Fold:
Amino acid sequence: MHRFLKNILIVSLFVIALHLILGALANGSTDNFYLRFTSSKQNSLIIGTSRSAQGIHPNILDSVLNLEENNGIYNYSFSINNSSYGKEYYYAIKNKINESAKNGLFIITVDPWAISSDTTLNDNEIDIESIFYSKKHYNSYPNYEYLIKNYKKGWGNILLKRIESNILIRNQNSLSKIKGAFTYLRKDGLLEVYTSMDSTYVKQNIQKKVYNYNTSMSSNKFSKFRFLYLRKTIQLLKKHGEVYLVRMPVHTSLFKIEDSFDPQFDKRIMNLANKTNVDYLNFADNATQYSYTDGNHLYINDAKIFSNQLAERIKILID
Amino acid sequence: MLFNSIDFAIFLPIVFILYWFLTNKNLKLQNLLIVVASYLFYGWWDYRFLLLILFSTIVDYSVGIGLLKQENKTKRKILLGTSILVNLGFLGFFKYYNFFLDNFITAFSFFGTEIKANSLNIILPVGISFYTFQTLSYSIDVYKRKLEPTKDFIAFSAFVSFFPQLVAGPIERARNLLPQFYKKRTFDYSKAVDGMRQILWGLFKKIVIADNCAVFADQIFNNSHDYSGSTLVLGAIFFAFQIYGDFSGYSDIAIGTARLFGFNLMQNFAFPYFSRDIAEFWRRWHISLSTWFRDYLYIPLGGSRGTNYFKIRNVFIIFLVSGFWHGANWTFIIWGGLNALYFLPIMLLNKNKINTDVVAQGKYLPSVREVLSMTLTFSLTTIAWIFFRAEDIHHGISYLSDIIHPSILTLPELITPKLEMIYTILCVFILVLFEWMNRDKIHALDIANYNKSNRWVLYLIIIIMIITFGSFNQNSFIYFQF
Structure:
């Protein structure tokens, strides 16, 4: 029996030690969110869903607006299922802000989906599947809590992903041939999406998104609860610096759907901006200037152009 | 509680320590611990259904005691009937009520009569098909005087609820398992180590093979109209390995866990995809169920004796009932029917017992003839699996007809996530290779005869593969729904 227990103990300790090492190797290739749970508290943030996660480059804002002096701006946007405005995201943001920050810059991106919810769910049910739900650690590195709760693959996959992403980034020009995509989360919180921009492939992706959004239209509705938390988020961030509400551009076919989903959206946000005394920058009309990977997200090079335009608009407002 | 969950990883060592260090001096206490642990294990899903197990246990225990005292034939039959009625009654209500109701309504509407009846929102208790068959085997064996009924209620409760095999088998015969609860168990190092090896291999099959194959099988089956014929073939193969990895993986973990506690459960899978004909396949796939049906249905019906009419009838009955046992859906019945059709020719030609040995025994590679016969058997089985996996009969037929298309001659498409698909195919190759190398053993990691360093290298490789390629979504096992 002792021999058996000794062997089991050795194997168990080996497996635990291996996991501790593998967990420490997690980086931007691990998944689309992990690094945002490991970064330190921030003075300036970009808030929103996957549109801003992929579409606003922090380094461009830093250089145009000279934010490096104030530790730069951090992209703390996630995805529609995780970071629509609500209680969970609100507390995650609160945990990410440096309490002593006073001169920060905060970009809050808005769209009709981020303030809507499933028609069948109550307010206390809507975010129970959010990545923030029941989290305690938002700023620790390595973040074992996050990996245990959210990483559903074996942790050996962390190492495999690191190797894969190095190879894929070096061969990103081949993506058009295989019609595929992969992501890499940068240290500043930007989610880089490397994807084939083959016109047929992109067209198919837009069609899929249009289908999904049409489906969402019938199953979602404007949420007073989310709108209330959007207001609370603005109020929270205003204590720490300047706040800007931004509507990002999307493909015209998707814009039409969201416009018919919530025709009052712009008016609603304008009123909110007036009441909270912040600026609302609407880029929805500039949609045709950019190319998109799937209609919903800006292509990485166009995201740079957009980030620059956004930074210039904010610069004018600041000056 | 799932075998592939953190809960079980905590539960198992606690029960193991209590079993061997605290209760080892007292057999009754040890059996009681098994009962408590088993009820906790089952109650983790839904404690309300524990009453069902308890009731079934009390009924069959009482029937056993009744049969011990009763010599009158009619009264003995009534006692057996009570056990059958209670067990099949539970099964019929929880599993088949809505199926029969829906088909009843459909049948009447076909003749122009509209019947209004509300189907019930019935939750299927996990593992009900397994433990009811296990307790039925006890009552039938006692009735036939093949087994002495037990007077030890705790031992009998432990036999019914024994947690390693409670929810998905192997469906143990009382004759094999029950006597093991009467004897004092002593810890056997080599038995425990072999149990751990079988658990490790079972985890590999479940977490690496089944759960990864499921991603691609689901995607292809759920969008079958969008894919080429060759991709649909690949989807069916993914499902064939998903169900094998899932179910045989469960059995390996169950048998291995039982061995840690000093119990021997029957072998449930014997490398079925290396079968050379369908009869051999059914001797190697879900052995505990196949032999249950053989002993308690096929042989009482006359088996393969009598005229061809009786032989054909019996084969169809056993396969259709086996299909229906899996679930209240016509797809399972079609699956059973197809297997009956595969089986019939070789039975009628009296060739159903020609492949009873291990394929290519003592050789590294099979002969061309063996390769062809294994490929044919695997193909036939995979075609039947399409119906097993399909949402309904229409889906199964359309899946098959979409396969028969010129696009079957093209290369299969890569399904996203593409790299994962390639890793999964590689892992399946490793599984097949490993199982081929050890096909004459009880399980693929039965490597006690390897030298120590080779054994440890193999453990390390499998652990690293589980950690690297495993899916830790805590996906349920397919057979839990049955």
Notes: Residues 190-276+355-481 of chain B form one domain. Chain B touches chain A at residues 20, 187, 189, 192-193, 196, 207, 414, 416, 418-419, 459, 463-464, 466-473 (CB under 8 Å).
